[in-house]
Write a structure and sequence with these properties.
By secondary structure, this protein is an all-alpha fold. Helix content is 67%, strand content 0%.
């Protein structure tokens, strides 16, 4: 019976390939910067939420701040919250959450795909989408997230349509349709590529 072979140790990389491969760590400050951007979004979300709660209790300064931030205009002076203002503020909050989700996808998925493994395999909170992430999957997920954000923006515009020019409404709809078609093309290309690629299990 022959003795088991010792595990093969990888050959050391030559200096130039080693330097080129190590250059991926230059992306680290970019991902750390996106984490700071995420913190700014969290702060913005809470500022808007506090203004909404204060306005609900009759604070006129908070109400004016909300009205100016959502770009709402009315023929009569706004003295209290109405359904349209609440809806626009809530959509703005959802918009922040969806952009925050997009940031997390870029930070976690991008770092895992392009920089270094996070070793989350046994972590109980490992995101479901991260278990099979690669550049193609990440691209499709980001395209889908962008469509969601565009949908929220379009809904906000339609609710507040009286304060927008017809050209703005038309172009926002066209741009949203282009986003939809682009995401469909990306997903279709990814599907065709994954079917044409040989299975890794065989």
């Amino acid at each position: 019976m022959s003795a088991p072979k010792p595990p093969l140790t990888p050959a050391p990389m030559r200096p130039l390939p080693s330097l080129i491969f190590a250059s991926r760590w230059l992306q680290l400050p970019l991902y750390l910067g996106l984490i700071l951007a995420q913190a700014v979004y969290v702060f913005h979300f809470w500022v808007e939420l506090v203004h909404l709660i204060e306005a609900a209790f009759g604070n006129t300064a908070a109400l004016k701040s909300l009205v100016s931030s959502i770009g709402y205009k009315s023929d009569v002076d706004v003295t209290a919250l109405n359904e349209t203002i609440i809806m626009l503020v809530v959509l703005a909050l959802i918009d922040v959450v969806m952009i925050s989700n997009l940031l997390i996808m870029v930070i976690v998925g991008g770092y895992e795909t392009f920089v270094s493994r996070l070793h989350l395999e046994d972590h109980p909170d490992q995101p479901e989408w991260l278990s099979h992430v690669n550049a193609s999957v990440l691209k499709v997920k980001l395209a889908t997230a962008i469509i969601g954000i565009s949908s929220i923006h379009l809904l906000k515009t339609f609710i507040n349509a009286a304060n927008y020019d017809i050209k703005v409404l038309m172009w926002q709809t066209i741009i949203h349709t282009v986003f939809l078609l682009s995401a469909l093309a990306i997903a279709l290309t990814d599907r065709l590529m994954s079917h044409s690629a040989p299975s890794s299990h065989h």
